[in-house]
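Severity: low
Component: inverse-folding endpoint
Summary: output formatting inconsistent between runs
Steps to reproduce: submit the following structure tokens with default settings.
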């Protein structure tokens, strides 16, 4: 078994990685096949990447399903030296796993997450709860707080929402989001989209796009119809991307923040 300490402390490697042991029971599956079943996972942060990934002791990985990569990539993952193809039920997933050269992480294997990169394992669980996109960051908080602030949202001068009953969602590293009751949003001005996203902290979101003439990115409004328990207060409420609409809170117009969503919104087709 791994000799890594279970003490919760963030550590660095000469390669620029940050890592710490986790006490969560983590499983990763490809379809119905369990590829990872680990009670000793390690959280790893790569330089410049805001979210962590997991690495696992080899003895807690189905190594019989891994083969040396036929076409290993270059420049992928920090200092990775060995890549593996994963073969499950006759399907070959190229470069689905890799190792880090860091001495601290010797004997550990990391995997791609399908919902994050489009390849790799497609179902992940922490304890008995399925998680999506990437592991939850233990150094990140997500708090959903009911409020009586006065929130008004405008698009190109048109007031599309006005409420005194928002729920404010505070998420480390992101601007506060204002979740608004449907009855206080002009949802008739928007068209339901078939776009969906998944978040390891909040759940699966559904979206709406602006139906007016202004140049607005698609999928500007979202809602969590069945959020995870930790943010149950936002259930069914509607939120707007602060990055692309005008939001006034208690009479003060908020500056549009610049986040990692900004580029995606600005490059999306508008109408």
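Observed output (run 2 of 3):
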């Amino acid at each position: 078994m791994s000799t890594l300490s279970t003490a919760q402390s963030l550590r660095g490697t000469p390669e620029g990685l940050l890592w710490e042991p986790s006490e969560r029971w983590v499983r990763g599956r490809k379809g119905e096949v369990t590829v990872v079943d680990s009670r000793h996972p390690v959280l790893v942060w790569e330089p410049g990447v805001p979210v962590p990934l997991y690495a696992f002791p080899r003895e807690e990985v189905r190594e019989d399903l891994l083969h040396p990569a036929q076409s290993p990539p270059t420049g992928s993952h920090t200092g990775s030296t060995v890549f593996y193809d994963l073969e499950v039920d006759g399907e070959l997933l190229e470069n689905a796993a890799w190792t880090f050269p860091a001495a601290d992480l010797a004997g550990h294997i990391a995997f791609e997450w399908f919902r994050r990169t489009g390849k790799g394992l497609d179902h992940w669980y922490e304890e008995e709860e399925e998680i999506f996109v990437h592991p939850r960051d233990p150094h990140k908080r997500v708090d959903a707080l009911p409020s009586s602030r006065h929130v008004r949202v405008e698009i190109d001068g048109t007031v599309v929402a006005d409420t005194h009953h928002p729920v404010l969602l505070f998420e480390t590293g992101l601007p506060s989001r204002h979740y608004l009751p449907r009855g206080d949003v002009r949802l008739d001005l928007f068209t339901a989209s078939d776009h969906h996203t998944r978040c390891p902290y909040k759940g699966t979101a559904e979206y709406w796009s602006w139906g007016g003439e202004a140049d607005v990115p698609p999928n500007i409004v979202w809602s969590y119809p069945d959020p995870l328990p930790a943010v149950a207060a936002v259930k069914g409420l509607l939120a707007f991307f602060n990055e692309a609409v005008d939001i006034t809170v208690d009479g003060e117009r908020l500056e549009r923040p610049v986040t990692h969503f900004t580029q995606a919104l600005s490059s999306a087709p508008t109408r």
